[in-house]
């Protein structure tokens, strides 16, 4: 069982761990009933109605993963979230790099923050937000969905947050072997949104649109796309390309 700290309210579970990482043991999980300033990728805010969604962060010290393979932590956390959600429904996917989708709607997001020390990772904070019981969303998020929307049921937030905590810690217990990383990477690809051999619409930050097929994801998280226009391969890092879903852009 992870070392769990329950908070009635905090600005950000990731920020709480940042401030206290030096005194907390590896495996500590912060769970917040109300997160007032939750963050997503690229500094986006995360809407979460108090008491209705899973907002938590895991501290991983000396994760036994090299800097060049740090995306493995994102893969591990993403797979852990999908594993838990599949106890209640099917059809969940991981949208590169680490959003959790059901169909073309977003149910969860993950924010991974590393603290480096010399040539290695000193510690990692993995923040997770998953929409569970929320039924109405008031922000400008274009495609939110919750587990309640999918199943019609409501859930005990303490129980489901504990399930996320335990599965995340389990997945992030790296033994340092290539075999473990390769097996997890293969599973990540099997759960990857739109990794289906078909061309889909993508966009660059300057608004250019193109059709491409997802070819691969490298150990550092680089996405390789095959452009439909000329069959050429191109590599993209975080923030360099986004998905177009139902004519909306997702960078």
Describe the protein in words:
With 251 residues, the chain is an alpha+beta fold. It contains five helices and 13 strands. The chain has helices at residues 13-20, 71-85, 147-151, 157-171, 178-190; strands at 3-10, 28-35, 53-61, 92-95, 99-102, 105-117, 120-131, 200-203, 209-217, 223-227, 233-236, 242-245, 248-250. The strands form two sheets. Strands 1-2-3-7-6-5-4 form a seven-stranded mixed β-sheet, sandwiched between helices. Strands 11-10-9-8-12-13 form a six-stranded antiparallel β-sheet, with no helix packed on it. It is globular, with a radius of gyration of 18 Å. The termini are far apart. The mean pLDDT is 92.
Set out the fold topology.
Layout: E1 3-10, H1 13-20, E2 28-35, E3 53-61, H2 71-85, E4 92-95, E5 99-102, E6 105-117, E7 120-131, H3 147-151, H4 157-171, H5 178-190, E8 200-203, E9 209-217, E10 223-227, E11 233-236, E12 242-245, E13 248-250
Parallel strand pairs: 1-2
Antiparallel strand pairs: 2-3, 3-7, 4-5, 5-6, 6-7, 8-9, 8-12, 9-10, 10-11, 12-13
Helix pairs in contact: 2-4, 2-5
Which characteristics define this entry?
251 residues, alpha+beta, BirA Bifunctional Protein, domain 2, SH3 type barrels, 7-stranded mixed β-sheet, 6-stranded antiparallel β-sheet, 5 helices, 35% strand, globular
